[in-house]
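Incident log entry.

Two folding requests arrived from the same account within the same minute. Monitoring flagged them as a possible duplicate submission, but the sequences differ. Recording both here for audit purposes.

Request one:
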Amino acid sequence: MDTSNLEKVQQAIQPNTKMIYVETPTNPTMIVTDLAAVAKLGHARNLAVVVDNTFLSPYLQQPLALGADIVVHSMTKFLNGHSDCTGGAVIVSTPEQAQKIYFVQRSAGAGLAPMDCFLVSRGVKTLAVRMDRHNSNGMAVAKYLAAHPKVKHVIFPGLASHPQHEIAKKQQRGFGAMISFDLGPLDSAKKFLNHVRLCSLAESLGGVETLISLPALMTHASIPPEIQMQIGITQGLVRLSVGIEDVEDIIADLDQALAQI
């Protein structure tokens, strides 16, 4: 039996290169990482720097230009933008990396279906227009939430209160559409989510529609409660993916739902 191809696949999937893997902003706690600083640190130690750029898309943040070696995206989210396909993307910085990824893709059968490719390519055509609207709506909604008396805390890099606001300003073209905010007790968050009308309760994000979720019981439910608390996922933390609807309609929906708490 010729095992040469198997060995090549194993080498491609498990290379000797060690890496630093960064998601910025983080999901759902919205922590921002200084990508240029991490790239400098990683390269000084011969580590590849890989960045998950899903929350901002290439329109608002370009990690390769800040020193990253590889960028990954969930194409399901902003790149597609219409919540109707599933996919992932790996963007590399050297031909050698591209050859390894392509070899794995051909050998392991990890290619995207034709229809999904079409849906993502369609979505990318409107990426700039959508992200501009996501960005402006996100800022308006974050300011509204920050001023609301029933909201305990808002986590949004576009607000000056965010601890990494200056880093976000330096490395991003905008602050995006992802907002997390704390409503305190779990019952308050449940009441709020049970009364939204325009916002759709869903674990996904990045669609043209406004999507809302409760990480502690949804996306991050598999994490033990004590670990959730350690990393800042409280029982009343709500994650909001602000859509491109009229911002006054979005705020009106949030306002009437908050009135039920």
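Request two (distinct sequence, not a duplicate):
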Amino acid sequence: MCPVNVPPTLSTGEVEAAIRTFWKSFAAKKADQWQSFYSEIALVFGTASKRPEPARLIMLRRQREYMASSATMRVEVGNIDVEMLGPNCAVAGYILKLHAEQVAKASASGSRKSEEHMENARVTHVFMRSDDGSLRIVHEHISAPVGD
């Protein structure tokens, strides 16, 4: 599944930089830049997911809830642990703090939720270098402790 003939070999620093750029573009509402990190085959488990969903659906939802609204976001990425799975694949795990206000998001009860605060979201990303040499997310899992 990991491409084997795509130079150069992926580095820990490249993965860490990609994660920080990914979240910086999300918080700045740079939708095109943020979306470009996802592979077309990516699957995502969000904090409220009951099953994995294609990234294209998650991107549409997040764009509507966070980027197309008047939401303001602050994101802090904690220490990133990167494990290389091969020369062009890696898995990264880290803690994320997300504070968003004026979010256009429905809550579980069906009412509108205008704020979202996650102090210790657990994030796992699986990255793969694509044929064009860019780094893409092929799997994302975000969970939050109960009460977060």
